[in-house]
């Protein structure tokens, strides 16, 4: 996050008028990004003993410094990856990511057997990122020149600066509660909250990751063509919500079963955050994130900062009163506040992108109806006390109900043709 500074977002979002402008912008982004990463590395190097104590690894300051070499490496790779994303070159980008993640397995295990201990993990990760950087240069085809047009930095940073601030706020939104809960409710409550939320975030966000890079690049390309922009927006949103809506609602209904299945009986208290966060995050994945990416593609990252600031203020307000409420009440309130973020994204996006929420409802009505009926079946099935294993059958029934109803009421059969070919 810190080594990026929003330049990736600018490269993907901005439409260049000439190859000369493109190369000039790429150079400015590359060298500025590398400079920021180098400064960060220097800060870590100088304060390595302090940072090692802060992360609970006192005495391992040298390991921290070596591991920090990944910052300048990734700052270089990130610009090359942004260029490939802009060119919709996702096949090669996927290959690079697979190789950079697979290489550490080939290096870490032999080094560990040779007795290098924790150094094997550090060196393995560095080798993987370094090879990924080399492949990025090869496939992206951009090699930085020894030139720097400082006049372009101002126009670039007018966008990337807000994108950078947005990423910082996103980090705060994800971690501010984790930084304070232990002192209020204790370590056990923090563990329940963190594990439950992280588990659901990984599941829900995996859906978003399936299309997000393609969607961001494609919609940025069509930012000046309203008809194509709107078509891309509604198409991606429609197909995403086919999966995300029933998954989120189903997770909420079967929260107790899913928590016990994935975490064990000792984690039953985490079910409230598992279910509540799944429900709230689904609204973001199905609706809010699409408007958020569309707002950024239109060149309004400042509005996203405003949305996140409102959300952050609400979380801080909740945390200030958390000592006066039970942990259960806090979890429910925290999930309710999460809904504010996609709501604001919809309100801002509808106005800035001129795509009303009613148009989303019009295109998404089959999955909304199918999800509603599925939810009724799921609730009725949960009213009956079944053995633990019978919940698998209940989930299977819900899936069949959803697919059947969606199949008969959707006017678009393209999604089923895709599944048949697969």
UniProtKB/TrEMBL annotation:
* Entry-linked InterPro entries: EH_dom, Poly_Biosynth_Transport
Q: Does the keyword Cell membrane apply?
A: yes
Q: Which domain of life is it from?
A: Bacteria
- Tell me if Zinc is a UniProt keyword of this record: no
The UniProt keywords, alphabetically, are: Cell membrane, Membrane, Transmembrane, Transmembrane helix
The way it spans or sits in the membrane comes to: Multi-pass membrane protein
The protein depicted here goes by the name EH domain-containing protein
Native source species: Bacteroides oleiciplenus YIT 12058
